[in-house]
Specification:
By secondary structure, this protein is α+β, with helices and mostly antiparallel strands. It has a single domain, classed as 2-Layer Sandwich (Alpha-Beta Plaits), CATH 3.30.70.270. The protein is about 35% helix and about 25% strand. The longest helix is centred in the N-terminal third of the chain and has 18 residues.
Length: about 190
C-alpha cells in the first residue's frame, strides 16, 4: 500500500496554503482534492515484445496528458513506478472526477505514440480521489485516495472511485456500502 511521505505532504501544504502566524494553523481556502493514479497492467508495456523504453514512453505520454488537463497551480507527483498523485487546491472531488474523466478520454483518443512492431496495449488508469476541507485531514486524504484507487482496480480497472471524508473521520465506501465507482467514459 502507498503512503504519502511527510515531505510530499509538507511540500504541498507549504505551497498551497498560507499559515496563520498568530495561531500557526493552516488556512484552507477551499477543498483540496488528492488524486491517486495507477496505470492498469503497466507491466504489459515493459514485457516482450516491448522493453523498458516503451514503458518510459507510456509514462511520458500519461504525464503530458495529465499536465494538459490540470490547472497551473495543481501539482503532479510521480510516486514511483506507474503511480502518480495530483494535488489540487480549491478543487472539489466532483471537479477532480471531471478532470480525470477528461484525462482518461484523451488517453483513449490518443494512444501511446510508438514506432514499434506489434500491438500496443491501451493505456488505462485506476484512479482514486479524496477531498478534505480541514487541515487536520490533509495527510489522511493521501491514504484515502490510495485505497480508492485500489478499489478501482478491484472493481474492474479503467475507472474512477471517489472516497468520502466525513467531518471527524475518513471512510472509504466499500462495495458493501455502495462505493461511488464508475468506469471512465469517452467524452
Amino acid at each position: 500500500m502507498w503512503f504519502a511521505t511527510p515531505s510530499l505532504c509538507d511540500s504541498f501544504i507549504h505551497y498551497a496554503m498560507p499559515v496563520s502566524r498568530r495561531f500557526r494553523l493552516l488556512l484552507l481556502p477551499g477543498p483540496i482534492s488528492c488524486i491517486r493514479i495507477d496505470i492498469d497492467d503497466f507491466k504489459k508495456f515493459n514485457e516482450h515484445p516491448f522493453d523498458h523504453a516503451v514503458g518510459d514512453e507510456a509514462l511520458k505520454h500519461l504525464v503530458n496528458i495529465v499536465r494538459q488537463k490540470v490547472r497551473t497551480r495543481d501539482r503532479v507527483y510521480r510516486l514511483g513506478g506507474d503511480e502518480f498523485a495530483v494535488l489540487c487546491p480549491d478543487l472539489s472531488v466532483n471537479e477532480a472526477q471531471g478532470m480525470m474523466s477528461r484525462v482518461s478520454a484523451t488517453l483513449k483518443q490518443r494512444p501511446v505514440p510508438l514506432h514499434v512492431a506489434g500491438h500496443i496495449p491501451p493505456l488505462t488508469l485506476s484512479v482514486g480521489i479524496a477531498e478534505c476541507n480541514d487541515s487536520v485531514q490533509i495527510k489522511h486524504i493521501f491514504d484515502l485516495a490510495d485505497r480508492a484507487a485500489i478499489q478501482s482496480k478491484i472493481n474492474g480497472k479503467d475507472r474512477i472511485t471517489l472516497a468520502s471524508a466525513s467531518a471527524g473521520s475518513l471512510s472509504l465506501p466499500g462495495a458493501q456500502t455502495g462505493a461511488q465507482s464508475m468506469p471512465t467514459e469517452s467524452m
